[in-house]
UniProtKB/TrEMBL annotation:
Cofactor-binding details, from the entry: Binds 1 zinc ion per subunit.
Entries under PANTHER family matching the protein: 5-METHYLTETRAHYDROPTEROYLTRIGLUTAMATE--HOMOCYSTEINE METHYLTRANSFERASE (PTHR30519)
Short name of any one Pfam family annotated for the protein: Meth_synt_2
Top EC group: transferase
Annotated binding of Zn(2+) 1, by residue: 640, 642, 664, 725
Name of the protein: 5-methyltetrahydropteroyltriglutamate--homocysteine methyltransferase
Family of the protein in this entry: Belongs to the vitamin-B12 independent methionine synthase family.
Amino acid sequence: MNSLTSSNLGYPRIGEKREWKKTLEAFWKGKITEASFEKVMKSYRLQYLNNQIERNLDYIPVGDFSLYDHVLDTAVMFGLVPDRFQYQGGKVPLSTYFAMARGTDNAHACEMTKWFDTNYHYIVPELKGLTPKLVENKPLQAFLEAKTELNVIGKPVILGPFTFLKLSKGFDQSEFADRLNQLASVYIQLLQELKEAGATFVQIDEPSLVTDISEEEMSLFTSVYHFITDQVPDLDIIVQTYFEAVTHYDAVVNLPVKGIGLDFVAGFETNFAAITKHGFPKDKILAAGIIDGRNIWKSNLEEKLTFIKELSTFVDVERLLIQPSSSLLHVPVSLTHETTLDRTLKNALAFSHEKLEEINMLKKAITVPSAEHLRAIQAHTQSFTELTNSNWRKKVERNPLATERAATFNERHKLQKKKWKLPLLPTTTIGSFPQTSEIRQARARWRRNELSNEAYDALIKAEIKKWIEIQEKIGLDVFVHGEFERNDMVEFFGEKLAGFAFSKNGWVQSYGSRCVKPPIIFGNVLFVEPMTVNETLYAQSLTEKPVKGMLTGPVTILNWSFVRDDIPKKEVAFQIAEALLKEVKLLESAGITMIQVDEPALREGLPLKKTQHNEYLTWAVEAFRMSTSQIDHSTQIHTHMCYCDFNDIIDSIRALDADVISIETSRSHAELISAFEHRQYDKGIGLGVYDIHSPRIPKEEEMVTIIQRALTVLPPSLFWVNPDCGLKTRTEQETVAALSNMVQSAKKARTMV
Ligand code: GLN
Ligand code: ZN
């Protein structure tokens, strides 16, 4: 066998030490000029290319780099700038680009939403009243830069017209086909320019092909690609899919393009079954995503090698490209700086650079199957299986846990009402209060052992005390301790549970310059010690009012972590649930019997394909219930979710069987209320009455109106009054003012029911 080709789909933007983020933020703060900003960004871009060249890739992506987001890049290069940004035509200025992403005093930012099922957020293009026009050929610039500066013929990466349109808003679905054709003409120009500049291979990303698109949509897709490739006949286009198996395999592999990119990690079973059943066209290239672009584990290269050999029975090796399953945007850059991780664990990890090295190793083992190359593959696999075989992952028998509370909601409601004697429309908050920089700095010092446990503890307690007094003064009905001891709602619990590890530099881009560092769930998750009992009990000791316990739910902890992949996600969720149940019971026996278990990420875990929703929701709900069922009837379970489209999951929300749910709604109140109206939500519910994302202080009357509107569909006996979400990003002054108005609005509303 020989001449297998290696490729990459996209490289992380943030830099090994988040230098990209720092430069971006320095520029926004006006600390560097536009010229030096452009210069530094160019140096990163070239560095990133060099990092890939060093790893011997045959096809290196260009044009995947971005100053914010690749969907925004695409909109901007087509001049698709909403009117409110007063764009004058021509190349879109950098200031307008960032204004669209971040908003200005005069124009609100474009909406941001999740990129498929990842935690990356893109800027939603707004097409209302706009016609696409190629005002700047960004992939061409990237291509030429790589060619001139590094003598590399890069593989331009372009977001495809179909997916771009699917992700856009501001038009009626009946216009979809016309809009797509309009876009296609612009793509033709873009591709022609690339071809003239000497590009050979071009990767057009069409991840929408893995979603539930209809047959009609698929044939529309096909005809548009006919239109494009007829005009640019001798450019080798790869239509690239990822994150799942394609929905219409036959149609996709028969598209009139040179190559098809399929995901053989996330979409492994379905894609592989399809290729086995239908074969693969003899004249096409298969770009096979075989190294996981979404998770951080090393690959079992022996298995991968076998898989490549299997694939080669359908596609000649000469026509096979091996690559990560998706862009590496979703994993950290390099393991080099991880100096404190356990050796066995570190040996089992692969960030972007290590993944590219894996591809290189596989390529070598196929093209030159020497003993040396094969040994390297074996050694690699062995160092990985050290973790798989370790005690940390020894199979544990989970105890069977109740997933149903012993009393119905109505029975519980009666008992709970008697226990707390809360006023009608009780007021509360979602958990966190403002985190001062003083607290953050103290935590950093404490972590560096520069501050003793006692001193740190005393600081946290002082803050709790202060906010109990504030809550007393404001007159809230149910208090919280304020979450001052938490850096992040998942990391905090991960650090206290067994089975979690934390990298030093494992950052990934979440949106714009914002990065997250997900915890790594590497082994069995187990309860080790009480996590929240001290702070909660301390808070409770200072007041007669009930203090809500505050935990992060199993599904959210799972969805915001990098998760081991040797057992089903559901098993990991159940392990977390079991550990959380222990905490719930500890709180309960210490007298904290109102406990909130937050699940803001419940919806985020929804699979891309609707047919898989049920399965996910079933175990997600089960995990939540495991952590909250084996308790006394009179213990009141609260849960909280951030804004999301609830319509399609409302049955699952009800199935959580929480006594009270608080939901972020202020941005779409009417919509949400109608969702609840139609399904008649019949448990305790707090619809957020003001938006915590804005520094604006909501007026009492506004909130009275919101409460009254909600009460037209929800019974007052079940209704709670609370803000949209936690308050940790607000100032003390804003928080006190807003909550005082909120309490007044509840009092007023009580007199009106
Ligand atoms: N209890 C958390 C807080 O108040 C909830 C945060 C969230 O929903 N994202 O901060
Ligand atoms: Zn929230």
